[in-house]
Specification:
Largest sheet: 7 strands, parallel
Low-confidence stretches: 1-7
Number of helices: 7
Oligomer: single chain
Strand order of the largest sheet: 3-2-1-6-4-7-5
Order of helices and strands: HEHEHEHEEEHEHH
Structural class: alpha/beta
Helix content: 25-40%
Strand content: 5-15%
Distance between the termini: 26 Å
Bound molecules: S-adenosylmethionine
Length: 196
């Protein structure tokens, strides 16, 4: 993954598997689940289902992992629970079980912008957070939690022409932007425009 050449956009899943054998996990961290209203929880579920849809196009879909998943999430999730990776315990535990000690946390409040150099990690973390307006500073808490558990966290933001304004903040759109950059070799601006 670190030797990112520009990929042709259309590759079959088998070709992709050969070229990217160490496909990372895309983890949606649900530790803030209880802070959401029922309606917002529904949106979180829908967006995770859309993440599965995106990854299934490229791979199997099981690369979507949901951590801190509780009974209510399982009940409310209308997608194929058996095709994604659902994990009841904290993200750090999941990472340790998979021998992953360093991650990229997608965080609109980060100082550094996501780049190709970050595509060598084995896990990307996206906050399972829905908040219209997005002004609350919530994602950094996920990073602090991971660091406390001994995980190295690279906090990275996605920007459009240098600014987070104009970047869609839905969980599935963020995943879509990463995939367009990683798999299709698009620039960040192009990827953001295409996911708007
Ligand atoms: N106000 C929330 C916060 O403080 O993070 C916004 C959460 S956003 C709706 C859901 C998730 O999408 C975030 O936790 C983050 O992982 C990801 N995200 C949204 N916009 C992003 C951006 N511009 N750069 C990186 N990640 C972003």
């Amino acid at each position: 993954l670190c030797m990112m050449e520009k990929f042709e956009p259309i590759l079959t899943p088998d070709e992709l598997r050969l070229r990217l054998p160490d496909w990372p996990y895309f983890i949606v961290d649900l530790q803030l689940w209880d802070k959401h209203t029922q309606k917002e929880k529904g949106k979180v579920c829908l967006q995770i289902n859309q993440c599965y849809g995106l990854l299934r196009d490229y791979f199997t879909g099981s690369e979507v992992a949901v951590t801190w998943a509780n009974e209510e999430f399982r009940k409310m999730f209308h997608g194929p629970l058996d095709r994604i990776t659902v994990y009841d315990d904290p993200t750090a535990e999941f990472l340790k079980e998979n021998k992953i000690d360093e991650v990229v946390l997608l965080d609109p409040w980060a100082d550094e912008v996501l780049s190709e150099k970050d595509f060598d990690v084995k896990a990307f973390i996206i906050g399972g957070i829905v908040d219209t307006g997005g002004e609350k500073k919530l994602t950094p808490k996920i990073g602090e939690e991971l660091e406390k558990a001994g995980i190295k966290v690279r906090r990275r933001k996605i920007v459009l022409k240098g600014d987070i304004i104009g970047v869609p903040d839905r969980i599935n759109r963020i995943l879509g932007i990463i995939l367009k950059m990683m798999v299709e070799g698009k620039s960040m601006d192009e990827a953001v425009y295409e996911m708007q």
